[in-house]
Amino acid sequence: MELKIFKDYEALSLAASEEIIRVIKTNPAAVLCLATGQSPVLTYQLFVEKIIAENIDLSRCTFIGLDEWVGIPPEMEGSCQHFLQNKIFKPLQIKSSQIHLFNALATDVTEECKRMDRIIEEKGGIDFMLVGVGMNGHIGFNEPGVDINKYAHVIELDETTKAVGQKKYFDKPVNIGKGITLGLQNFLEAGYAVMIANGNKKAPVIKKAMEEEIGTQFPATIMRMHKNSMMMVDEEAASLLDKP
Ligand code: F6R
Fold it and tell me: Is the Cβ atom of 140 under 6 angstroms away from ligand 1?
């Protein structure tokens, strides 16, 4: 795993947006999986601006959802789907046939997970994943202690994820007990994975991700097991790392 440290959030976001564009220019039919959350907001804004300014063709790309809050309707502000639609798909006029997101209202969520895994397989696998990292080290909704062998699955959300999620994404109380997420096997099989993190509050998280023993007790350590991964952080998030 490569580690890149940027001066600030702006520099990190610019580099991350350029990384997505590089992937697409190298493979115009790329299968992309892009996380939601606060960390990538500026990355996606810069990505969208550059795609439009340079008239880059995305018509052959496929977009796969990383995760979703079980039971939260897609149109509700705070859902992952709402975020991706508003920040990426609508501004870039991505066709719905190119987008495959979890249906968090599915009556059979196990079947929904199988459906997503089948889509990924049919598309030949995920080429590029951009993920954030939770305060508990989660990747997607792969919470501490998750089974590393899992592909898409439904998971009981950790207390930290529920508390942070309620506060950060929803303006009224919601019932967010479970998440539906791609698994760490989907992550490990992705051709290339980038994790981004910024700000002082992520400094202890990045320290653990980089220095703790690799294992699902802190899922972000799995980044270091990936065959082709890059950790992109700003100086604040890197501030607790042992200096070389
Ligand atoms: C969101 C997701 C989560 C976030 C993580 C960090 O799709 O999968 O794992 O990436 O919770 O969120 P932020 O970026 O808001 O700190």
Answer: yes
Closest-CA residue, ligand 1 atom 11, reads 134
Task: Compute the mean pLDDT over every residue in the chain, rounded to the nearest whole number.
Answer: 97
Query: How far, in Å, CA of 154 to CA of 107, rounded?
Result: 13
pTM of the entire structure? 0.98
| Nearest one of 198, 199, 162, 200 to 179, comparing CA atoms | 162
CA of 244 to the centre of ligand 1 (A): 28
Ligand 1 centroid, distance to 168 Cα (angstroms): 10
Domains and CATH numbers, the chain: 2-220 (3.40.50.1360)
Tokens of 105: 């209202």
Instruction: Label the pairing between strands 153-156 and 178-181.
Output: antiparallel
At 34, give phi and psi (nearest 5°).
-120, 125
Rounded Cα distance between 31 and 79, Å, is: 22
Catalytic residue list contains 54: no
Rounded Cα–Cα distance for residues 118 and 177 (Å): 26
Nearest-CA neighbor of 102 among 178, 48, 210, 44? 178
From CA 182, how far away is CA 65, in angstroms rounded? 8
CB of 202 closer than 6 A to ligand 1? no
Does the annotation count 19 as an active-site position?
Answer: no
Of the residues 67, 112, 158, 234, which is catalytic? 67
pLDDT single digits (tens) 5-22: 999 999 999 999 999 999
Phi, psi of 128 (to 5 degrees): -145, 130
**Residue 224: which of 243, 241, 209 has the closest Cα?**
209
